[in-house]
Structures are given as structure tokens and as C-alpha cells.
Design a protein that fits this description.
Structural class: alpha/beta
Strand content: 15-25%
Bound molecules: adenine
Largest sheet: 8 strands, mixed
Number of strands: 15
Helix content: 40-55%
Distance between the termini: 72 Å
Amino acid sequence: MSSIRERSLAPQGKEKMDWVREHMPVLKGLEESFRKSTPFRGLRIAVCLHLEAKTAYMCRVLKEAGAGVVVTGSNPLSTQDDVASALVEEGLEVHAWYNATREEYREHLEKAANFSPELLIDDGGDLVSFIHTKYREQLPRIIGGSEETTTGLIRLRAMEKEGVLGFPVMAVNDALCKHLFDNRYGTGQSTWDGIMRATNLIVAGKDVVVIGYGWCGKGVAMRARGLGARVIVCEVDPIKSLEAHMDGFEVMPLQKAASAGDFFVTVTGCSKVLTREHFEAMKDQAVLSNAGHFDVEIDKEALVALSGGYRRVRKDVDAYALPDGRRLYLLGEGRLVNLAAADGHPAEIMDMSFALQVLALKYLLDNRGELANRVLPVPQDLDSEVAKLKLKAMNIEIDRLTDEQKAYLDSWEID
Ligand code: ADE
């Protein structure tokens, strides 16, 4: 039995799924081949992801590949109720709704765990962490899992280091066909999509402060520049800071940038990044948003303490008034703005990420019993295969090395 908000929204959700399917050719190719070969026949798969149309389409592919599938959201504001409803209509078990409370979110995870999965896909590590803390008896049955994000991998590596990881997990985020495209171009575009949908404000001519210069931060900064903003990057890592400088951005400490920014985007994966001292220095009507996985980067408690609370002034926009009358606008309650206020990454990008997810599960299955309980890289040939399929789908041809060139690259002796 599923637990969703509203069954009647299914036609709208199906329409969204049909649209993305036509823009996800690699996943569509897998769907066609796995429908025939049914590699997951009889298996139970739990999926804990941002439940929007691209995710739903991937879940459909898993079902067509023979699996029983349970789906839960990986963030309270990223579930789209119409999409959840469409999946239930297609016979999947779904436990998720938009704006789930903390307790409801945990209940949904609990239901996914009670499905007794043998394989799982996680985004942020909540499901894996939940099973390891509350359902330890399930660990021996689980063939393996796969993780979508940088944040999730940080948690999983902490588990591995402590020696508590109970099954192998594929680090999909670290595959090149994932982070070079999804984290950079996906987050870059969808973050601005979310900010612009939420605010309907111009970015050109504004000062944008991007905090964190990993792959996601690079994308957010690059697209801000493309929109005509002046971009400041704040970063704690010296190498990434240097990289940001040579990429042509202004680099400075956050306290200095605080008084300059019109838009702030946190994308660090860390907690308490924008705090009271920064809020106190900000301009009237500064817009604060987060594109990192958890809502811990912008210190909401400090915002409340400074202002006494917020007033919702527009969908996804809360205004916090400082004692002197300045207003700070927080988007999407400080949750990932690209999913809270928009539809997440573009379909063509999630095509590669989700093709990798499906292939990672197949790899776990094909190597069942032979993999260590560790965080494992996606094999390079699988990563390259996804790139080849994507290029083919885009009608892009590339050159090949000649035998002579291969021999040259393999040689090392001096003439
Ligand atoms: N859609 C589904 N999962 C997503 C993710 N992790 N980031 C952005 N968009 C998504």
C-alpha cells in the first residue's frame, strides 16, 4: 500500500514523465533492452531520490526490468505529488509527499526499509543510514546500493572508515559522466532556474556570491556570469580558490562578500556557512539560497533569532526583517533551491546520471557476493559506455586513435 497525497493527479504526472522520457535517450535505450532481458526479475529495489519526473521515469525502467520497486523522497520539498501519483498508477509502491514533516519523512523511509530491498539507490545517504541504524537485521540480505551525491558519499565514506558499512555501495557521483555534467551543468542551470522562478528578479548587473567551488559551485558561478552578474566566489580550499581566481572570479572571505551580494548561493555540503555575522552585514533585500544537499548551510535559527521570524511574501520566498528594517529573503526554506523551487536538473543531464544508476545496480547484481562492503568506483568502461551512448544519441561522431598512435602511447624507450 502506497502513502501519497493525491491519487487524482496521476495524468499530470504521467505527462511530465512522458516529456522527460523523450529527452533521456540513454535511459530509453536501457529501458528497451532491459524490458526484454529483465535483469532485475524477482528482485526488490528501494529508491530514495528527489521524486520528480526524471526519477519517476528511472523507477519505471527498473520496474520494466523486472523489479518490484518502492520509492521514497530524499527531501521534503522535492517530491512532486502528481509524479508520485503517476507512479502509483503504474503499479509502483510510493511513500512520499510534498512538504512532509520530519516525522513523516522518517515514516516514509521506514516503509521503504520494510519493503525488504535487495538493492537500493540513495541520494544523500538517508536510506542507507536509516537501515544501518534501525534495520540492521536486513544488512546481510542487501546485495548493494548506489549513491547519487557528493554529500551522500561523504557520509558513506565515514561509515566505511568506521568499518560499519554493511554492503557494497557504488559511488555514482564520482563517475565522470555524473559529476562533470550533473554537478556542473545540471546544478549550474537548475539553481538559477529555481532562483529566477522563485523571485522573478533580474540577475544581470547584480552581485552574486557563490560559496563553495566544487563541481556544483563551478556550475553556479559559470551560469551566474552567463546571466550577466558580477560573481564573487568564497571557498576554504586553497587550490579551488586559486582555480576560481584563474577562472576569472573575484575571490574573497565571506565576511567581506556579505555586504556586497544581491544573491547568495551556498553550495558547500557543510553546515553553518551563512551565519549571524553575515546576515548582519547584508544589504536590504539580499536573496539567500542553498544548492547543497541538506538545509544546514544557511543558519535559519540565527535568522529567526535576528528577526523574530519570517513572513511568506511569495511562493518559496520567506522575508526575514532585521531590527533596522532590512529584509533578507530566504528561498525554499534553505532547502536545495533547484528542486524546492524548480524541477531539478534538465532531463538530458539526468539521462546520464540515471543511466549510470541503473547500470551500477546491474553491476552489483552481476558481481553479487564478490564485492567488498566498501564504497566502490563505477568501473571506467561503464562510465565510457554511457558517454558513447550519449554522443551517439546526440549524433556526435568522434575520432579514434590509429594503431600507430596506440603503439606510440604505449612506448617508453628513448630513441
Ligand atoms: N532530479 C532527480 N534527482 C536529482 C538530483 N539529485 N539533483 C537534481 N535534480 C534531480
